[in-house]
Design goal:
The complex is a heterodimer of chains A (543) and B (139). Chain A is α+β, with helices and mostly antiparallel strands. Chain A contains 17 helices and 20 strands. Chain B has one domain. In chain B, strand 1, helix 3 and strand 2 form a beta-alpha-beta unit. Classes of the chains: A alpha+beta (543), B alpha/beta (139).
Chain lengths: 543, 139
């Protein structure tokens, strides 16, 4: 049996006995056959000595059992690493930051405690997946949507705590921002409720976020301070209809006014859906378009030339072939009359870009028919799915898929100028480091006020390739920081590097987090090292 | 006493032809029921597997790469009630996704075997069995 670091065989055995008494023998896993299921399938250290391993896993079924497990872990100083469902592949999966930790697997806590249609909120446990919540709503015909990530197999709570995002209305796309109220088991086993939940018998736990006094919910996201056992979320009222409309622009520099207008319209709430934003030279705006259909050979040839791309040649191609250079699909939710008027207004504003061309999209009445469900991008309609796994799968256009990816995802300003700067910086770095980053890649529009570049660094089962890509990833973290761009989330393998870049005031943020860590978790047992926050005994002498 | 998993694995490894080995597995697994025979209808080997599965009285379920509909409308509902073994001939990505979903239902990949590439597609096809691990199904 593998042991957690710094724990004696006898203490570990005593802790496991305590865990078994708490959750039942069937829900404590110690065999390697079982614990290997918690390996990160996309680990950048796959098969290498540095790959994170799990010494055991414990799966409680209730908040009370979580409390008891934490008390036992404290008694024997067992490192604990909670996961909701552990499916955030590309950002770490279910493997712990501190190798040898015991995974606290919350998947059995899968109750949907409440869905209030009139006030559009839900209260769930961490084992509830997006599929589960969608099914609950769908079976009851409730007129609310859940904003889901892609894929939708993960935990609603887990994704929000990792500060993940989705694809519908901007008010709900930021999953942590859309939460309202938490229940948290602290490292010592004490139970805490945030917001209005701190008031016994509160009637508004999922309706008013901040309660009274300092609002501490953020401390429990990307956290090592507590185990979230319940969480409320605001849901999107089901709209009457959906409409999209696409604008295509033809000059590279048109990106600057396009972003400016796009941002203004979004902040005015002229459109509320997520803009789909990309280079029309590459063949499409929807996720996976370039995997389904390779870019035109002429475009690929221009991009393959050494040095900076020949922008004039690309513009010429876009003009001659009518593809344009950039495109943006605007998405609208609401009553048909309203959203049609909103699209008309958006077109008026976007007409300020010379030569801009527009294409009206189809208007869909909600709820979608079964046939329509099969031909739309499901996440835009709040429908969880798994199809993204098959976009990157082996196909005629992708004959050699990788074994996975690690997401590199810096936040950059929401301006066209910033996009150009990032493209240049990333392009230069990609050429030097030998990683696949297209000079035409555009950032994601998940968040309203900033862009996020999301790039997948490939994972293979070849240690030499993985080592090269890990080094490239770290170099990119450093280069981004030098330009004032920071990652919003990253896999455990890089959390220390990223946290080290948030160094203002001689790492005041990390020092503050670790001051809290020492106070709330004096034995340092919970999620050691998560997001670069380490307990005192594992800081290696760092202040 | 040998566990059912060991019997299954022995049955699969001991056969040369994967389709035949799955059939062997089905026999060895008695009285374990194969809840669904999952096949990717794009692959000739998948279609052949489905025909063999139906002949043996299993219920075949077709996919074309994506497993979302199979998962949402069928497996997720069944697995809520407890583990139920599935066997399949698909591409590796479908197996990867089903494997991770099955883990939440207390199952895992018991065996997988590469099949020759489909002439029409040129990428690997795998045959596999997902079932509860040995300790959950002591024979």
């Amino acid at each position: 049996m593998r042991l957690p670091p710094g724990v004696s065989q006898s203490d570990f055995a005593a802790a496991l006995t305590g865990f078994e008494a708490t959750v039942g023998k069937d829900w404590v896993f110690t065999s390697q056959e079982d614990t290997d299921l918690y390996r990160d399938a996309y680990s950048p250290f796959w098969g290498e000595p540095e790959e994170k391993f799990v010494s055991a896993a414990v799966a409680p079924a209730s908040t009370e059992e979580v409390q008891a497990v934490m008390r036992i872990a404290n008694k024997y100083k067992i490192p604990i690493y909670p996961i909701s469902t552990g499916k955030n592949l590309g950002y770490g999966g279910s493997a712990p930051v501190l190798s040898g930790s015991v995974v606290l697997d919350l998947k059995r806590m899968n109750r949907i405690l409440e869905v209030d249609e009139k006030n559009a909120f839900a209260l769930v446990e961490p084992g509830v997946s997006y599929f589960d919540l969608y099914r609950y709503i769908d079976e009851r015909g409730l007129k609310v949507w859940v904003d889901c990530p892609d894929p939708g197999w993960g935990s609603v709570i887990g994704n929000a705590l990792d500060r993940g995002g989705g694809y519908t209305n901007a008010l709900y796309r930021n999953h942590f921002d859309a939460h309202c109220g938490m229940e948290v088991v602290l490292p010592n086993g004490e139970l805490l409720r945030t917001g209005m939940g701190a008031l016994p018998g509160a009637k508004t736990w999922q309706q008013y976020k901040s309660g009274f006094g300092p609002w501490i919910d953020g401390l429990f996201s990307q956290t090592s301070l507590g185990v979230v056992t319940k969480m409320g979320f605001w849901l999107m009222p089901q709209p009457e209809a959906y409409l999209s409309g696409t604008v295509t622009v033809f000059r590279r520099d048109d990106l600057i006014p396009l972003v400016e207008i796009m941002t203004r319209l979004e902040n005015q709430e002229i459109y509320t859906g997520m803009p789909l934003f990309g280079s029309t030279l590459l063949g499409g705006l929807e996720p996976g378009d370039t995997q389904r259909r390779p870019p035109p050979a002429e475009v690929s040839a221009i991009l393959a030339r050494p040095g900076e791309p020949d922008w004039a040649a690309l513009e010429r191609f876009g003009r001659d072939k009518g593809t344009g250079f950039w495109g943006c699909r605007f998405q609208f939710y609401g009553p048909p009359k309203v959203i049609q008027a909103q699209w008309e207004y958006a077109k008026e504003q976007l007409s300020a870009i010379p030569g801009a061309k527009f294409q009206d999209g189809e208007l869909f009445r909600i709820p979608l028919s079964a046939a329509d469900q099969e031909r739309v991008q499901k996440v835009v309609f709040g429908i969880p799915n798994l199809s993204i796994f098959f976009i990157g799968a082996r196909s005629d256009t992708n004959p050699n898929p990788t074994e996975g990816h690690m997401w590199f995802s810096p936040i950059i300003p929401r301006t066209g100028e910033a996009v150009f700067e990032a493209q240049k910086v990333f392009g230069d770095a990609a050429r030097e480091l030998g990683v696949p980053i297209s000079p035409l890649s555009l950032p994601g529009t998940y968040w309203r006020r900033a862009f996020i570049f999301i790039m997948g660094f490939p994972i293979t089962h070849d240690p030499a390739v993985n080592k090269k890509n890990r080094e490239a990833f770290k170099t990119m973290v450093r280069i981004c920081a030098e330009h004032g761009w920071g990652e919003y989330r990253t896999a455990p393998a890089f959390q220390d590097e990223v946290m080290a870049t948030y160094s203002f005031g001689d790492h005041a943020l990390r020092r503050f987090n670790e001051t809290l860590k020492d106070a709330v978790d004096p034995n340092g047992i919970l999620s050691a090292g998560h997001y670069g926050v380490w307990p005192k005994h594992l800081r290696g002498g760092r202040a | 006493m040998a566990s059912r998993r060991q019997i299954l694995t022995a049955g699969l490894i001991g056969s040369v032809l994967p389709l035949g080995s799955l059939a062997t597995a089905a026999q060895a697994a008695q009285p374990m029921e194969i809840y669904r025979a999952v096949y990717d209808r794009r692959f000739a080997s998948g279609r052949a597997f489905a025909a063999e599965a139906v002949r043996r009285g299993w219920t075949a379920a077709a996919i074309e790469g994506d497993v979302t509909n199979l998962w949402y409308h069928d497996l997720a509902v069944r697995w809520r009630a407890g583990p139920a073994a599935i066997a399949g001939v698909t591409d590796a990505q479908a197996l990867f996704v089903l494997d991770h979903l099955a883990r939440d239902a207390g199952m895992r990949v018991i065996t997988r075997e590469a099949l020759p590439p489909d002439p029409a597609f040129s990428w690997p096809v795998v045959s596999w069995l997902i079932a509860p691990p040995a300790r959950a199904v002591r024979a």
